[in-house]
Amino acid sequence: MPVEGGSSSGSASAARHPKQKRKAHSLSIRRTNSTEERQPGILRGDMLEGQDSKLPLALRNNLLDLFGQIEREFENLYIENIELRREIDSLNERLTGDGQTVEGGDPTKGALKTKASHSTSQLSQKLKTTYKASTSKRLYTFQSKIGGPRNFSVATWELWGGDSWIVSSFKATTGSRALCQLLKEYMGHRDGIWDLSVTRTQPVVLGTASADHSALLWSIETGKCLLRYAGHAGSVNSIKFHPTEQMALTASGDQTAHIWRYMVQLPAPQPPPDVSAPCDDDQDSSDREEGEVDGEGPCEVPTVRVATATLKSHQGVVIAADWLVGGRQVVTASWDRAANLYEVETSELVHTLTGHDQELTHCCTHPTQRLVVTSSRDTTFRLWDFRDPSIHSVNVFQGHTDTVTSAVFTVGDNVVSGSDDRTVKVWDLKNMRSPIATIRTDSAVNRLSVSANQRIIALPHDNRQVRLFDMSGVRLARLPRSNRMGHRRMVCCTAWNEENQSCNLFTCGFDRQAIGWNINIPALLQEK
């Protein structure tokens, strides 16, 4: 930041006019160039004007240091803006050659402004792509580049919630808090959590898959970490549990999927915390570093490092995996644009499902039938039918305009798909031409889930919100989020657990925590 030429003369003028000096009781700081070196013999107090201040010298020196840091930050932003301006001018020159232009070269006007939402989606996709493909031990490099509170673009601002943190304090109604209450936080991962799932056998535990190369099993009631799986060499992108046995299936950025066994013992349950007290804090804590909350992760937890079976046929990141009904076969989805079907007992590749034009993002199996649905960045999802061993049919669903982030089965004959185009669509398997319901949101939708009994859709968003809808597209509630509760980064996944009367919905996000919620479903449906 340039030095003001009149700063020294202004100081002399203030000394000649004591009346003006008495009027200014606030601390005045002489502006200096942040790049210049301070002389070692100059005291910090000599740089302060307004000697009649009643502030202690140590406090004044501290203020001077803080203002100096602010100046350096603004100087860095100024330099970055100059570089961005040059890039915009260069792009304008190229566009002019093609007969196009960006209005005035102003990044807040014209075509750039109209494509702000598209930039947000691109940045979100870049974040997800970098982490899910990561096999590096340096877990925080990319996060530190985009996650600091000082390096915001329009797209970054919207990805981190935009102005929703301002209005969320006013829109969180008392009724919403009564219907949706936070019960437990599960903190211990050292990086973002991509996926979570609940076991289908006793003992019932929560499983989380994280970019820190590990999967953790948690006690739902106490929030205590029970076991850690550390067999992957890359980001663990999904976790699913066997329908009848104590086995887990994880997919990873190391291009493999692992099947591993676990044995856990549940600790004694603790009394639930009092969540009825209203939250009075308006200020959001999204700019706080997660390391200050999460610590260094679980200590002295039993660790499994060797998989029972390793599935290695993919040539790219394995983004998701799931068990087929019965648990004898599994399906995996990869960025190599294919999904593979394996025999669990032999780890043998049975089928390779091809047809998608771009990377796969998710796969899901039907709870009672041999059906598989795969989602892709090619804006489609495909339904694979293995009910007839001799005929493997496939149906393509086209209804989104951006990446389909997930598509899941319901107990009936429906599929619910979510997309980066900020819409969720409900489809009837008997009529695939058009969706029977469309939900439009204000942010990209990640891995959604549908409750088995009441068929309530839980939508995790990039803007840190979680919303609940019914199958007809009617909005039921938004989970409360404030300084004391909720996610501080994008929410990656939701999972229902209706067998548990208290903690029946789980969410996880890039803030390295999973959250257990109590959703009063009967009251929610009654208010509809």
UniProtKB/TrEMBL annotation:
GO cellular component, one term: nucleus
Listed SUPFAM superfamilies: WD40 repeat-like (SSF50978)
InterPro entries documented for this protein: WD40/YVTN_repeat-like_dom_sf, WD40_PAC1, WD40_repeat_CS, WD40_repeat_dom_sf, WD40_rpt
Positions annotated as WD repeat: 186-228, 229-260, 311-352, 353-394, 397-437
Pfam families: WD40 (PF00400)
Keywords tagged on the record: Cytoplasm, Nucleus, Repeat, WD repeat
Bias (Acidic residues) ranges: 279-297
Lineage top rank: taxon: Eukaryota
Bias (Low complexity) ranges: 1-15
Annotated Basic residues bias: 16-25
Claim: Repeat is one of the keywords in the record: yes
PANTHER family hit by this protein: WD REPEAT-CONTAINING PROTEIN 37, WD40 REPEAT PROTEIN 12, 37
The protein's name: WD repeat-containing protein 37
Organism encoding this protein: Amphiprion percula
